[in-house]
Specification:
Length: 909
C-alpha cells in the first residue's frame, strides 16, 4: 500500500513537472532567452552575447514576412531577396561571410523599416562537386566506383550523404546571424524545384530555344563530362612547368612549344609548325598561313602529308594566323581547339576526334609517343619555353580539353538582347555602374549556352531519343521532350502521324548544368509554374546581391530565364560586391593556403590549429610549408576571438564600391574593442539611469545635450542616405564616429560631473535628470542604428534598456523601427558651432598640458614655469578665428585611449 502511494505521488510530481515545463515552453516564446535581468558582466564577451539570441529570434518568427504584417497590403511595401544558393558540399569562407554580412544587413534594415520582408534561403545540389565528393568517399571507404553500383544505387548514396552532411552550411549561416526565413528553405533537387526545372526545359525545347548540336565543349577527362566556363581555372605559366594530373603517376610537362615539320605532297619541301599540345596533331586536318604571307604564296592549292597515316591536308589561307609568331604556319585541329574549329567551319574541314583513334593510350602518354615517333621520322625540330595558360578543372584538378561532343544548348541571342535592353532602358539597375560595360559586352556578343553534363547527380534531362519504325519522312531517329515517357511517346506519334506502338524511346543519360536550375531559382522557390500565393506576392523580387565574379554565370541567366519564362524581371536592382583578398592583396585560394574560415575569426584559433587545417588540405607538401610560413607571419599568435558582430561590421566597413577588399583579419579585432566600448557605455548608463528611470518624450536640454542630439540626428541622416545607395563604409563610419568619438569620448565624459554633483547635492538633480533623458535617447536610437550590422550585441544591450511604451513596443530590436531621418530634427548649426569652440579649447589646453608636461599628480604651477599669458593668448586667438568663421577643423577629433578619462573630470586644469 505504501509503495502504491509512493508511486502515485511520484506520478503526480512527474505530471506536475511536465505541466510546468509545458507552461514554461509556451510562455517562453514571449520572453528573451538571454539573462537580461541580472547586471551586465564586467566586460564584453562575444561567446556570452551570441549564444542564445538566434534560436529566440527564430522561435518568435521575426524572420518571417508574416510577422507583424499589416493586413494583406503593407503600405510600407515589400522587400524580397533570395540567397545565392551555396553548394551543398560547401563550407563558409570569408567570401560567403561578406555576402551574408551585406545581405543580412540590408534585410534587417528593410525589416526594421516595417516592410514585409523575406530573405529566402536555399542550397544548390552542385552537380559536379557533390558527385566528386561522394565518389571519393565510396572509393575510400568501400573501394567501389559509381559504375560498380549503377546509377540508381549511386544516387541513393548521394542522397544519403546529403541528408547527413548537407545542412552544415545552414548552421554556419545561422552562426553569422543571417535572418533567413528557414521555413521557406529550398534545395534545388526538391520535388517542387525539380518540377520547375523539368517544365522550363520542356517549354523552351518545344519552342526551339533549347536544341541539340555537336560542338566543342570544355571536357574534363577525369569527370568524363563537359563543364562550364566558370568551372575552368586559368593557370598562367611563365615557361616550362611540371604539373600533377589526375590518373598519372608522374607530373606532366607544360609551358613548352614543340616544333615539327609536315612534308609537302609531291615535293621535298616541308612546312614547320609549332604547338603546345603535340598529341593533338593526330587530329590535324590542315595547315593555315596568312593570306599576305609571301613565304607561303607558292603553296596555294597544295597539301601536306600526315606522317602517321595517308591523310592529305590542305594548306589554307586565313586572316586569323599571326605571321610574326613562330614560322607563321599553324596546324589546324578543328575537333580540339576553339580557334581551329572556326577555321574549320570557314574552310569546310573535316573533324577528327583523337580520343576515338585506336591508339589505346591516355592523352599525355600519347604525347610522349607522338614526340618520339616524330623524332624517329626526323620531323621533330625543337622544344622551347613558352608562356601559356593551362585550363584546369576547378573540381577535379584535371587539365581541360576542348572536345567535339553532341550536347544540349540554349539559344541566347534573343534572351541576351532582352536582358541588355532591360538595363539600357532603366528597368533593371546594376550597381556599381562600372559593371555595365561588362554586362553589355556579354549580352551583345552572347554565345549559346551548353546545358548538358555527363553526370548522374542532377536533374536528368527530360528528353527522349525516339526511333520510329516504318517512318517515311525521317532518318530513323528524333528527340522529343516530355514530363513522362508516355507524354514523349504521344508527342512523337503525333509528330510522325503513327500509332504510339511504333515509337521506341530512351531517355537521355545526361543531366542539366547546375546553372540551369539556379537560373530559375528566383521563381522556382515559390512554386512556379503553379500560380501560388507566394509567387504572386514575392515575385518579382526587389534586389539581387552577389559577387561581381558571377555576373554572367548566374545573374545574367536569371534575368534571361526570368524574362523568357515569366515575362518579368526577377528583381529590380543588382548590387555587386567586390572580391575578398588577403591582407597582401592575393586572391584567397585553397591552393595558396590563405583561405580563412570565418568561424575561426568568430571563435578564435591558435596558430597550431591553422597549421593543422593545412595538413588536412590537398596542398603539395612544399606549398604546405610555404603556407605555414605565411600563417606564422600574419598570425604569430593565432587569430583572437573577435565574434560575429565585429566580423560583420568589419566586412561592411571594407566594402567600398569598385575595388576588391584586402582584409587584414587582425583589424577585425579593433571592432571587437568597439563592441566593448558599447558594452561599457550601456553599463555606465544603466548605473546612471537607475531602477526608477522612466523615459520621457521631451526634456529641456543643455548645450551639450542639444549638441549630442544634433550629432545623433546627423548620424541618422547619414545612415539613411547611405543605406539607400549601398554605401556601407559611410554607414559604419557614421555609426562608429557617433558612438566612439561623440557619445563616449565627449558627451559621456562631459556629463559625468553633472551626475557626480547631483549625487552630492540634491538641488542639482534637475540637470542630471535632463542628461539621463538625453543619454537614454542616444543609447536607444544609437543601438537601433547599429542593429542591422551588429545584431547580437545590440539585442543584448537593447533588452537591458527600459522602454518608452512597455505595453506596445516590439519585443526585439530586430523588429523595432529603424531611426528615420524625417523624425529626427535635432540638427542645430549654432549648437554645433558652439561645441566646436568648446572642443577646440579643450584640445588646445590638452595640447599645452602635454607640451609643458603638466599632470594631475604634479603641483602644476610650482614645478613648471608656465607662461599663463601664452595659454590665454592662444585661446583668444582661436576664439577670434571661430567667431570670424575661419576655423574649419572638424570636431570632435579622435581622442587617444589613454586620455579619455581626463575629459570633463578636472584633469584639464
Amino acid at each position: 500500500m505504501k509503495e502504491c502511494q509512493e508511486g502515485t505521488q511520484l506520478l503526480s510530481n512527474w505530471d506536475y513537472c511536465s505541466f510546468l515545463q509545458l507552461y514554461l515552453n509556451q510562455i517562453s516564446i514571449y520572453l528573451p532567452v538571454s539573462d537580461v535581468v541580472s547586471p551586465l558582466p564586467d566586460s564584453y564577451s562575444p561567446q556570452y552575447v551570441e549564444a542564445a539570441w538566434y534560436p529566440w529570434w527564430e522561435k518568435q518568427g521575426f524572420f518571417k514576412p508574416e510577422f507583424g504584417s499589416i493586413g494583406e497590403q503593407n503600405p510600407r511595401g515589400i522587400f524580397m531577396m533570395c540567397i545565392p544558393p551555396p553548394n551543398v558540399t560547401g563550407s563558409l569562407h570569408l567570401g560567403h561571410a561578406l555576402t551574408n554580412a551585406i545581405q543580412d544587413t540590408l534585410t534587417r534594415w528593410h525589416r526594421m523599416r516595417c516592410e514585409t520582408t523575406l530573405w529566402n534561403p536555399g542550397c544548390d545540389h552542385a552537380g559536379i562537386a557533390t558527385q566528386v565528393v561522394v565518389e571519393k568517399k565510396l572509393m575510400r571507404e568501400k573501394g567501389t566506383s559509381r559504375h560498380d553500383l549503377g546509377r540508381e544505387k549511386f544516387i541513393e548514396e548521394v542522397w544519403k550523404w546529403k541528408n547527413e552532411k548537407g545542412d552544415r552550411i545552414y548552421h554556419q549561416l545561422k552562426k553569422l546571424g543571417s535572418s533567413l526565413d528557414w521555413d521557406r528553405a529550398c534545395f534545388t533537387m526538391d520535388p517542387k524545384l525539380s518540377y520547375a526545372v523539368q517544365e522550363a526545359f520542356i517549354r523552351m525545347h518545344d519552342e526551339g530555344v533549347i536544341y541539340r548540336s555537336k560542338r566543342l565543349v570544355n571536357w574534363s577527362c577525369s569527370l568524363n563530362s563537359a563543364i562550364s566556363d566558370i568551372e575552368v581555372d586559368k593557370n598562367e605559366l611563365s615557361g616550362r612547368t611540371l604539373l600533377p594530373v589526375p590518373g598519372y603517376k608522374e607530373k606532366v610537362e607544360f609551358g613548352v612549344l614543340v616544333s615539327f615539320a609536315y612534308k609537302v605532297d609531291g615535293s621535298d619541301e616541308e612546312v614547320v609548325v609549332a604547338t603546345t599540345r603535340i598529341e593533338t596533331m593526330l587530329g590535324d586536318t590542315a595547315v593555315a598561313v596568312h593570306p599576305s604571307d609571301s613565304r607561303y604564296q607558292h603553296l596555294k592549292g597544295k597539301t601536306v602529308l600526315h606522317p602517321f597515316c595517308d591523310r592529305k591536308m590542305p594548306v589554307v589561307f586565313d586572316d586569323f594566323v599571326d605571321m610574326s609568331f613562330g614560322t607563321g604556319a599553324v596546324k589546324i585541329t578543328p575537333a580540339h581547339d576553339h580557334n581551329d574549329y572556326e577555321v574549320g567551319v570557314r574552310h569546310n574541314l573535316c573533324l577528327i576526334i583523337t580520343s576515338s583513334l585506336p591508339c589505346g593510350m591516355k592523352r599525355f602518354d600519347a604525347r610522349k609517343a607522338v614526340l618520339q615517333a616524330l623524332k624517329d621520322r626526323d620531323q621533330f625540330k625543337e622544344i622551347k619555353d613558352n608562356p601559356m595558360v593551362v585550363p584546369v578543372c576547378s573540381r577535379s584538378k584535371d587539365i581541360v580539353e576542348p572536345l567535339m561532343k553532341p550536347q544540349w544548348y540554349v539559344s541566347c541571342s534573343d534572351m541576351g538582347k532582352q536582358a541588355a535592353d532591360a538595363v539600357r532602358e532603366g528597368r533593371l539597375k546594376i550597381i556599381p555602374d562600372h559593371h555595365l560595360k561588362t554586362w553589355f559586352n556579354w549580352m551583345d556578343n552572347i554565345r549559346d549556352w551548353c546545358i548538358s553534363r555527363q553526370l548522374w547527380w542532377g536533374h536528368r534531362i527530360p528528353a527522349y531519343f525516339i526511333t520510329v519504325s516504318d517512318a517515311s519522312d525521317m532518318d530513323g531517329h528524333y528527340w522529343v521532350s516530355g514530363r513522362t515517357p508516355e507524354e514523349a511517346r504521344e508527342k512523337a506519334a503525333k509528330r510522325f502521324n503513327v500509332s504510339p506502338d511504333k515509337i521506341a524511346l530512351r531517355q537521355d543519360e545526361d543531366v542539366l548544368d547546375t546553372w540551369f536550375s539556379s537560373g530559375i531559382f528566383p521563381f522556382s522557390i515559390f512554386g512556379w509554374p503553379n500560380e501560388t500565393e507566394d509567387l504572386n506576392v514575392f515575385y518579382p523580387g526587389t534586389l539581387l546581391e552577389t559577387g561581381h565574379d558571377i555576373l554572367f554565370f548566374w545573374v545574367a541567366r536569371m534575368v534571361m530565364m526570368g524574362l523568357k519564362l515569366t515575362g518579368k524581371l526577377p528583381f529590380k536592382e543588382v548590387y555587386l560586391h567586390a572580391v575578398v583578398r588577403d591582407a597582401h592583396g592575393r586572391k584567397m585560394s585553397k591552393s595558396l593556403g590563405n583561405v580563412i574560415d570565418p568561424l575561426d575569426v568568430i571563435t578564435g584559433i591558435a596558430l597550431e590549429g591553422l597549421h593543422a587545417q593545412l595538413m588536412d588540405s590537398n596542398l603539395d607538401p612544399l606549398e604546405v610549408e610555404k603556407a605555414k610560413q605565411g600563417q606564422k607571419a600574419d598570425y604569430p599568435n593565432g587569430i583572437p576571438e573577435c565574434g560575429t558582430d565585429a566580423l560583420r561590421f568589419a566586412l561592411c566597413a571594407y566594402t567600398s564600391q569598385g575595388r576588391d577588399i584586402n582584409l587584414d583579419v587582425n583589424r577585425i579585432l579593433g571592432y571587437r574593442h568597439f563592441c566593448n566600448k558599447l558594452w561599457n557605455a550601456v553599463k555606465f548608463a544603466m548605473r546612471t539611469l537607475g531602477d526608477q528611470f522612466v523615459p520621457a518624450d521631451k526634456a529641456q536640454e543643455s548645450v551639450s545635450d542639444r549638441w549630442i542630439l544634433s550629432r545623433l540626428s546627423t548620424a541618422v541622416a547619414q545612415c539613411d542616405a547611405a543605406f539607400r545607395t549601398y554605401d556601407f563604409p559611410a554607414i559604419t563610419t557614421a555609426i562608429y564616429n557617433f558612438w566612439l568619438y561623440e557619445l563616449c569620448d565627449v558627451y559621456l565624459e562631459s556629463v559625468k560631473p553633472v551626475f557626480i554633483k547631483a549625487k552630492e547635492d540634491g538641488s542639482c538633480e534637475r540637470p542630471a535628470a535632463v542628461c539621463r533623458q538625453t543619454l537614454y535617447t542616444c543609447l536607444e536610437v544609437g543601438l537601433r542604428l547599429l542593429a542591422p550590422l551588429m545584431p547580437f550585441v545590440t539585442e543584448e544591450l537593447y533588452q537591458r534598456l527600459p522602454r518608452r511604451r512597455p505595453q506596445s513596443d516590439p519585443p526585439s530590436i530586430c523588429v523595432t523601427p529603424y531611426p528615420d531621418a524625417a523624425e529626427f530634427c535635432w540638427q542645430c548649426e549654432d549648437v554645433d558651432r558652439d561645441m566646436d569652440f568648446i572642443m577646440a579649447v579643450v584640445r588646445t589646453i590638452r595640447s599645452l598640458r602635454s607640451d609643458y608636461k603638466l599632470t594631475k599628480t604634479a603641483a602644476d604651477c610650482k614645478q613648471t614655469k608656465l607662461n599663463c599669458s601664452s595659454l590665454v593668448k592662444q585661446i583668444e586667438k582661436l576664439s577670434e578665428k571661430i567667431s570670424k568663421g575661419d576655423y574649419k577643423e572638424k570636431v570632435p577629433v579622435k581622442v587617444q585611449e589613454q586620455d579619455t578619462e581626463k575629459v570633463g573630470r578636472g584633469g584639464n586644469r
